Amino acid sequence: MIEFLQLKKNLKKDFGKYKQIKLSILGDSATQFLTQAVRGYGYEVGLNIEIRESDYNQIDSQILNPGSELYQYNPDYTLIYISSHKLLQLYNNTKVEERSMFVMKQADYIDNLISTLQSNIFSKIIIYNFNEINDYVFGNYSTITESSFIFQLRRLNMMLMENISKRKGCYIGDISSIQNNLGKKTFFSTSTYINADMLISIEALPFVAKCTVDIICAAQGMLKKCIILDLDNTLWGGIIGDDGIEKIQIGHLGIGKAFTEFQHWIKKLKERGIIVAICSKNTEEIAKEPFISHPDMVLRMEDIAVFVANWNNKADNIRYIQRILNIGFDSMVFLDDNPFERNIVRANIPEICVPELPEDPSDYLEYLYELNLFETVSHSAEDGERTKQYQVEAQRVQNRDKFTNEDDYLASLEMVSQVAPFNQYNIPRVAQLSQRSNQFNLTTIRYSESDIEKISQSREYVPFTFTLDDKYGDNGLIAVVILKTVNTDELYIETWIMSCRVLKRGMENFVLNTIMAYASSHKYKVVTGKYIPTAKNGLVKDHYKELGFVEKDGLWSLETKNYINRKCYINQNYYDRCRNYFKGNK
Amino acid sequence: MTLEEFIVEFANQFEDADVSQFKADTNFKDIEGWDSLTAVSIINMIGKKCGVRLLGGDLRGAGNIREVYEIIQQRSQ
Predict the structure, then answer these.
(1) Directed axis angle between helix B65-75 and helix B3-12, to 10°?
(2) For A127, which of A80, A83, A142, A236 could close a Cys bridge (C-beta 3.0–4.6 Å)?
(3) Is residue A478, in this structure, part of any structural domain at all?
(4) How many helical (H) and strand (E) elements, i.e. helices and strands, does chain B have?
(5) Domain interval for residue A194
(6) Within a domain: A381
(7) Residues A335, A469: one domain?
């Protein structure tokens, strides 16, 4: 882990080239070093985190007073750090007979703070949980004594998880786990506490800063979506081509155990929605054999979205995988035990994340846990289906080559799209798509679930979601358009995002036909839209131009009057409520 | 740790550290950037690198870097 001193040095560097994020830090202890560490860590990941630190111990007044500096600053993120030490002091001052109920009041207090904050501003909230302090007043017996501090603290952590999991736009920074990993002796320094009232030691600060910035990155859409794995000595011990299937090390004996547990971890990632791909220097049939017939393998062929085993350069193979998956290199992680291969990949594809895997496979998992590569701020049931969708995509790519004519190919797919407004079933997926989409994203506005809910209830907005189904399988919800009424004549496309899984299928035409049908049935004269360039959305630079829009001062517009439906091979399947969109008046 | 090495470590705790500014007889409280946070960083550094626990008063009482170094030498014997 990078040291605090280094993070402090980062503060002098040029942040100008990085994206600016406004963060407010509210703490009940001294937070100056934490502020420096978070800003310094932001530099490491390419974020210019502008921090407004509240005065010492001003959490209540900043949140409860509507005219406070917090609300004036209007931050993108608010970090709330209520420390275990201050909690202990409160507990000490609580009457003995009330201690069993101590944290009920605390949980209500925190809940009230968050509700107040969320009702006043549009800020995402990060709150740290409570690192454990055991005062040993009851010894080990405190674990079964409800009125003991540790009993109360652990319950509060549990209540925090339950309460916050029901909220939107609010996340927990798990500093309790950081203390568990580092040990309390490292996490907390009595001298730093006594001299400066800081409860996180200088050694632990970089870990806490990382945990905080990880959440911000994920909420900004800087996510890892795919893990690419080598096979020999990465996924199992030994070399399949030399040792043969019966000799590779996997299972419950010796080092095999490490590989089995590692595979379980990969499998859990896949079940969560991370795409797993294989990239190995091997003969394909031999490489696939363990996945098909080894009894101790955890990963099977159905877990792998793209399987590449050949004797080509790994950088080229990863580029091939990228073409099939259609996601950015910076959302990929490549794991290989061989430093030579790692360096080749790093040198050729600098954006990809290539962890310096430890030499001893027994250390793989602990090392990867610490890196926390797969942070996320959302999870939907559909995520687990992703691998299957990419396998289908690989099939589609192969099939495409059979057709010489693009139209014949598209017609052969028998595509159907369901158009629907936002509803309780698709809101999590819509928010997630807005957070994850970087390439096909015209304005790159990130919406949280609560933002989406507000939009769905507003009369000013007209939201559409699109699914795409074809004869190979269902792609799920793959496009979102949010239209905003400017006046009775003009409808503005505030957001148009699409999953890159469905590029080149005529989905753009279908979406535009839908927008124009809505606009003309509601007597709008013109539909407008903007392209706001980012480092990643060059793909849609000419999007509006290609669809026949005309530009003036950065605003693209298309008149409804003479619009002729664009050619597409997708059939509509309107959701009932959406059909009402096309009736009625404004 | 020699006095020279100590001076470098000491200087590193200042935000705008120009190591050449720091000598054994430098009164560190006159250096720009000296504040209570720097003091906390220095006490922490001494704890980790020298294994000696200084108190806030030790730094307040010392006139220059050499005197801080001498306190550490005494305590670590």
Answers:
(1) 110
(2) A80
(3) yes
(4) 4, 0
(5) 4-219
(6) no
(7) no
Same domain (yes/no): A234, A354: yes
- Spatial neighbors of A571 by CB under 8 A, at least 6 apart, are A415, A416, A417
Say if strands A47-53 and A461-470 run parallel, antiparallel, or are unpaired. Answer: unpaired
**Among the listed residues A173, A160, A156, the one whose alpha carbon sits nearest the alpha carbon of residue A207:** A173
Residues A494, A482: contact at Cβ < 8 Å? yes
Q: Which residue has the higher pLDDT, B33 or A152?
A: A152
A410 lies in the same domain as A441: yes
Q: Read off the amino acid at residue A428.
A: P
Place of tokens 């797919």: A413
Task: Write the DSSP symbol of residue A303.
Answer: G
Please check whether residue B46 is in contact with residue A189, taking contact to mean a CB–CB distance below 8 angstroms.
no
Interhelix angle for A339-348 vs A314-325, to 10°?
60
More confident residue, A2 or B21: A2
Q: What SS3 state is found at A425? A: coil
- Structurally, chain A folds into a number of domains equal to 3
Q: Is B60 on the interface with A (CB under 8 A)?
A: no
Domain ranges of chain B: 3-75
Chain CA centroid to CA B75, Å: 15
DSSP helix/strand/coil, A162: helix
Give the model's pLDDT for residue B76: 83
A18 and A161 housed in the same domain: yes
Burial A418-443 (b: 16+ CB within 10 A, else e): bbbbbeeebbbbbbbbbbbbbbbbbb
Kindly report the nearest CA distance between residue B37 and chain A, in angstroms: 7
The residue in chain B having the minimum alpha-carbon distance to the alpha carbon of residue A188 is B44
Which segments of chain A have a pLDDT < 50? Answer: 577, 584-586
CATH of the domain at A316: 3.40.50.1000
**Nearest Cβ partner for B12 among A5, A32, A195:** A5
Tokens of A526: 């013109």
Q: Which two tokens stand for residue A144?
A: 């079964």
The sign of the torsion formed by the CA atoms of A550, A556, A562, A563 equals positive
- How far the first Cα of chain B sits from its last, in Å, is 13
The position carrying tokens 């040792």 is: A243
- Specify the pLDDT at position A397: 73
Q: Does B42 touch chain A (CB under 8 A)?
A: no
**A389 part of a folded domain:** no
A444 and A488 Cβ atoms separated by less than 8 Å: no
Considering only CB atoms, which chain A residues are within 8 Å of B59? none
Residues of B in Cβ contact (< 8 Å) with A191: 43-44, 47, 53-54
Contact between A309 and A232 (Cβ < 8 Å) = no
Q: Which residue in chain B is spatially nearest to A10 when comparing CA positions? A: B15
What is B3-75's CATH number? 1.10.1200.10
Domain assignment present for A390: no
Chains A and B: how many Cβ contacts under 8 Å?
33
